[in-house]
Amino acid sequence: MPMADTLPFDLRGLDIFLAVCDAGTMAAAARRLALTQPAVSQAIAELERRIGVALFDRSARPLALTAAGGALRQRASALLSEARQIAPLLREAEHARLPLLRAGLVDSLSRTLMAPLAGKLTEMAEQASVLSGLTASHAGALLTRQLDLLVGADDLDEIEGLERWSLLTEPYVLLMPAALPAPARPADLAQLCERLPLVRFSARSKTGMEVERHLRRLRLDLPRRLEFDTPYGVTASVAAGAGFAVTTPLCILEAAVPLDGFACRPLPGPAFARHLTLIARRQELGRLPREIAAFCRAQLAAQLPTVQALGGDGLAAEFRVEP
């Protein structure tokens, strides 16, 4: 019986198996492959031993496939066809574009990065896919090979086998009516909440989880009234007068809603920032993650004047693109 921790065949064995299927005898297959008949017979016997079933009915002339042999013949052809394409594909990838690149993008960067990133990926691949959504869902897709890289708000440092490229650090800020005084101390947030509710990011999002942890560190238990999964939902709700928010400059810019009468204020208390990172599986895409990270940094750096207009020089100074 085959060992549980080993493959039941190798590609060379499958190649010999298919040659016997096509030729009808082991002697004819041996001539076609420039091998001896004993070598072909031994290869077939070894394949049957490792799989644990007979592949040929040796009582028939010419050789007839068993049911298991017929099933293997169907799958072996596809496997060998794929294998033969690997070397040309690798040579092409070394000097030209990849067949496909799939990226996940945290939704707070959709307006800033989606179109530019899609353009960059199409320079590197014949086909590109950019999906927007929550970092957690993209992380699962990356680990199950449904995505090739992601740009998100979580560096997944607890997971091995990944390479990470830091892109940006941006501060968390208060988005609130400009007419109200800016909170100077964490305790002032509770007083602000008596006048306006806190519009939250959902705990399904990395941003929402980080904000909740920070509020607990400040020993603030603010009432829960309204929450959203998306930056647009939070920002648009605040702009409509539903409350104030703990958010980031890029989350505000992502919403692209008029904010007349509203202002970005520093969040009182200890420093609190969001980190954006590009993540790929280690050593699978060569230089591409590094190049894409550099491209993303340049696109994010171009947002600095808009961030400055949003919150002044102090906010712009805390909006740091990695070198």
What does this structure look like?
By secondary structure, the chain is α/β, with parallel strands linked by helices. It folds into three domains: 11-91, Orthogonal Bundle (Arc Repressor Mutant, subunit A), CATH 1.10.10.10; 97-165 and 276-299, 3-Layer(aba) Sandwich (D-Maltodextrin-Binding Protein, domain 2); 173-271, D-Maltodextrin-Binding Protein, domain 2 (3-Layer(aba) Sandwich), CATH 3.40.190.10. It is built from twelve helices and 13 strands. It has a six-stranded mixed β-sheet with strand order 4-3-5-12-6-13, sandwiched between helices. The longest helix is centred in the first third of the chain and has 29 residues, at 67-95. The model has no long low-confidence stretch (mean pLDDT 91).
List the defining traits of the structure above.
single chain, 323 residues, alpha/beta, Arc Repressor Mutant, subunit A, D-Maltodextrin-Binding Protein, domain 2, 3 domains, 13 strands, 20% strand
SSE blueprint and pairings:
Blueprint: H1 11-23, H2 26-33, H3 37-51, E1 56-57, E2 64-65, H4 67-95, E3 98-106, H5 110-124, E4 125-133, H6 135-143, E5 149-152, E6 162-171, E7 173-177, H7 186-195, E8 199-201, H8 206-217, E9 226-228, H9 231-239, E10 245-247, H10 249-255, E11 262-266, E12 273-281, H11 288-301, H12 304-318, E13 320-321
Parallel strand pairs: 3-4, 3-5, 8-9
Antiparallel strand pairs: 1-2, 5-12, 6-12, 6-13, 7-10, 7-11
Helix pairs in contact: 1-2, 1-3, 1-4, 2-3, 5-11, 9-10
